[in-house]
From TrEMBL:
Protein name: DUF4476 domain-containing protein
Source species: Mariniflexile jejuense
Signal peptide location: 1-21
Keywords of this entry: Signal
Length: 205
């Protein structure tokens, strides 16, 4: 029974993580089980976690099925019917009440790092276009940028349920990142000049 419970957990966790966990490879399944354990989820929270996932999947399926039954004129849609976005936001809120951001990152770290690495690489290329750095300096700058984008990615996902809170968290991350970036570049003898207004996706190189 314990083994069956683990397999069910793996399958549902795979849906949640958006990873290809459909393989029958026991090693891959064990890796996912270890992720949950390392994240600190005990049996009780794993059960609750699974329940949240099942509720979300059931709600999304209900929306999909109900859309097929709507009138051709689209006037019979129930005002009580939740949208996909509302379901996902509700799931994110309930999940945040169950696990911490650190636990969330622990489970999703591999996938989040993949997305964050792409953004960090783009930013690093822009830095290198603006400044000539030594190999050691490149490593330090990239480490700072990669750390920022990792935190940015997990923050966007974890606080999906509250736009205002999410934006506050992201603003704080960017403020400290730009402050540390400027301090690091100045330690290399590189002056960035007078700060200027930047958009939400770039910083002053």
């Amino acid at each position: 029974m314990k083994r069956k419970t683990q397999i069910v957990f793996i399958i549902l966790l795979g849906l949640f993580l958006n990873v290809t966990a459909q393989s029958n490879n026991n090693t891959e399944l064990e890796v996912l089980v270890e992720r949950a354990k390392k994240a600190g989820l005990d049996n009780d929270r794993i059960i609750k976690f699974l329940d949240l996932i099942k509720q979300k999947e059931a709600a999304l399926l209900e929306i999909k099925n109900s859309s097929k039954d709507e009138s051709i004129y689209g006037i019979l849609e129930s005002p009580m019917q939740k949208t996909n976005t509302e379901v996902k936001m509700e799931f994110a809120k309930n999940l945040a009440n169950l696990i911490s951001k650190e636990e969330y990152l622990s489970i999703l770290e591999e996938e989040i790092k993949q997305a964050a690495t792409k953004e960090a690489t783009k930013e690093m290329n822009n830095v290198l276009k603006a400044h000539e750095l030594t190999d050691d300096q490149k490593k330090k700058v990239y480490a700072l940028i990669a750390h920022y984008y990792l935190n940015q990615s997990v923050t966007k996902a974890y606080y999906l349920y509250d736009k205002k809170l999410k934006e506050q968290k992201l603003s704080a991350l960017r403020f400290y990142f730009e402050k540390n970036y400027k301090k690091l570049m100045e330690s290399f003898g590189i002056e960035l000049g007078i700060s200027k207004k930047v958009d939400t996706n770039t910083f002053q190189y």
